[in-house]
Design brief:
Radius of gyration: 13 Å
Distance between the termini: 40 Å
Shape: globular
Order of helices and strands: EEEEEEEEEEE
Strand content: over 45%
């Protein structure tokens, strides 16, 4: 069965960096796009970034120029490198596989605070 397990979240000061990872299993990883989404406290879900099987990428305007999505097809792992973090980036970050019925990881908390 499909499993997505995020890691790498934590507490970081404004301006700092974190790298999120998502251990993916149970499907042919290199054939599918992978995504990251986030949900801040009391707010709705925000789509953050996608990376397609061909390596093409999408970023939300709110993270463009600060976040970089990548994928390691040998390790079945997508990454989200987050630089210049801001307090408004505080959220639970989810790894997502958009294949029906859509699969979500359990999420990893990112807190940006001084």
């Amino acid at each position: 069965q499909v499993q997505l397990v995020e890691s790498g979240g934590g507490l970081v000061q404004p301006g700092g960096s974190l790298r999120l990872s998502c251990a993916a299993s149970g499907f042919t990883y290199n054939k599918y796009a992978m995504s990251w989404a986030r949900q801040a406290p009391g707010k709705g879900l925000e789509w953050v970034s996608d990376i397609n099987s061909d390596g093409s990428t999408y970023y939300a305007d709110s993270v463009k120029g600060r976040f970089t999505i990548s994928r390691d097809n040998a390790q079945n792992t997508p990454y989200l490198q987050m630089n210049s973090l801001k307090p408004e980036d505080t959220a639970v970050y989810y790894c997502v596989l958009l294949v029906p019925p859509d699969y979500w990881g359990q999420g990893t908390q990112v807190t940006v605070s001084s």
